[in-house]
Amino acid sequence: MKVSDILRVKGSTLYTATPDEPLSHALDLMAERDIGSLVVMEHGNLVGMLTFREVIKTIVSNGGTLGATSVRSAMDNAPLTCTPETDMDDVRRMMLERHARYMPVMDEKMLMGVISFYDVAKAVVDSQNFENQMLKAYIRDWPETGEASPAA
């Protein structure tokens, strides 16, 4: 299974922020859309990723407030990325190694989407459920012991 398989099912809605906008505006969008991350874009290029993890770290370092903090000062400016052709086993390994919950999907410099750890887990479970159904169907159709096999 490839990342493109997840994007095909998930859809292509993307929410972005710019690095120089106030962090409070980005948080308003995240809360309004009930999303855990924003891709940070500048001049059409991916420059960072903003997740609740970065927001919480920023609030703690600011003594419990956002103040006039910009997205740029809170974002991860070197987010982990993958391509649509990246294998799901590689994505799981990368996300676990970096403790990344969200990963932008890039095709060269074009942002194709964002996948979450939830999306990856759901794809794995759906795939396993499908395989289980196929195996159960195969076993149900298994010939009885002693049943003659068809003549060749």
Quick gist of this model?
This protein has 152 residues and is an alpha+beta fold. It is 45% helix and 18% strand. The strands form 2 sheets. Strands 1-2-3 form a 3-stranded mixed beta sheet.
> Helices and strands, in N-to-C order?
HEHEEHHHEEH
| Residues in helix, % | 40-55%
Instruction: Trace the largest sheet across and list its strands.
Output: 1-2-3
Strand content: 15-25%
- Straight-line N-to-C gap: 37 Å
- Count of individual beta strands: 5
CATH architecture classification = Roll
Explain what you see:
- There is one protein chain.
- The chain starts with a helix and ends in a 12-residue tail after the last helix.
- The chain has one domain: CBS-domain, CATH 3.10.580.
- Strand 2 (37-42) and strand 3 form a beta hairpin.
- It is built from six helices and five strands, in the order αβαββαααββα.
- The chain is elongated.
- It has a three-stranded mixed sheet.
- The chain has 152 residues and is α+β, with helices and mostly antiparallel strands.
Offer a few descriptive terms.
CBS-domain; two-stranded antiparallel sheet; 152 residues; 6 helices; 3-stranded mixed beta sheet
Write the layout of secondary structure elements.
Layout: H1 3-10, E1 16-17, H2 23-33, E2 37-42, E3 45-51, H3 52-61, H4 71-74, H5 88-98, E4 102-107, E5 110-116, H6 117-140
Parallel strand pairs: 1-2
Antiparallel strand pairs: 2-3, 4-5
